[in-house]
Amino acid sequence: MIIKKRGYGLIAILLICSMLGSVMLTAMAQTTNSSGNIGSWQPPQNFVDPVTLKIQEFRSQGLSDEQITAKLSDIGMGWYPQTGATWLGRSLSAEELAKMPTVVPVNASNESQEPNMPLDMSERVSSMRTSSYSWTGVTAEITANSMSSSSGQTQYNYLCMQLGDLDGTTNWAETVLTHNAGETYKWYTYDSDEGGLSYYMDKNTASNAADTYVIMLDGTYSGGWKYDVWINYQWVRSAHLSSLWVQAGLQKEVYSSTGQFSNDASHAVYYRNWLHNAGGWSYWTNTVGSKWSATYPVHETHSMGAVSYDWETWVQN
């Protein structure tokens, strides 16, 4: 009987291990699919962002828009009452904004836009951009890598993903990952006319981890076409664009007050890049009209990967 019981015990252990292994493999497959298959991903149905829920709660208490805005700021949320734009994170103070470069989607070959920068701040840019205004969303998996910075050379180092009127004069939105001199990696979001630049949170993944960014118009109109921003599938911002059909872009920006820029030890890599239109998500491939540019010492290279364009960008003097 003892021998039999031991045998049954061993069989039970093997069955449990087998079941656990199956569950773990399933979970791993789900994780892989969720991070690498944006084509089947959609925002949750009937999604209401947490900031809007808080606004509704405060309104039920009889608070004014000014009081609600202040209370939201205290808990790390933002609201632009004029349009209803909402976001997670805090808006930058006037003093912080005065120190930071102005966020703009620039034509990297056109340095005439440098007067938008703070006094004595030089900018260099690389970009990958759709030629046509025919898209309603963009997503990319981005590995930041070194994004080198130092006080005497590159002081501000940005990696951006953008959606909007990138070659024109109206509005756009973007995600911004920064690695500035003396700072850790940080996530921001930006809207050119609804709330500006807002700090979301410190990047909570490794510098060589692939993070997923999504900006997507949802097809609804209320004083503008509503879009949402998601970072690693967490909602971060909602606001509006003036057109439903816009450009998508990827961009690296570096800024220096000395005119000297830090060499990147490794390339930032944008891969598994997708575009969205009325037909849904499709990979950003060589069938899409696209353009690239870079200003020395920023460099870029692009090639067709296994499923989409891979875009790499770095600083090398």
What does this structure look like?
This protein has about 325 residues and is of the alpha+beta class. The chain folds into two domains: about 45-80, no CATH class; about 90-315, Peptidase G1 (Jelly Rolls, Sandwich), CATH 2.60.120.700. About 20% of the residues lie in helices and about 40% in strands. The chain contains four helices and 18 strands. It has helices at about 1-35, 50-60, 65-75, 95-100, and strands at about 75-80, 85-90, 90, 120-130, 135-145, 155-165, 170-180, 185-190, 195-200, 210-220, 225-230, 235-240, 245-255, 270-275, 280-285, 290-295, 300-305, 310-315. Strand 1 and strand 2 (about 85-90) form a beta hairpin. It starts with a helix and ends with a strand.
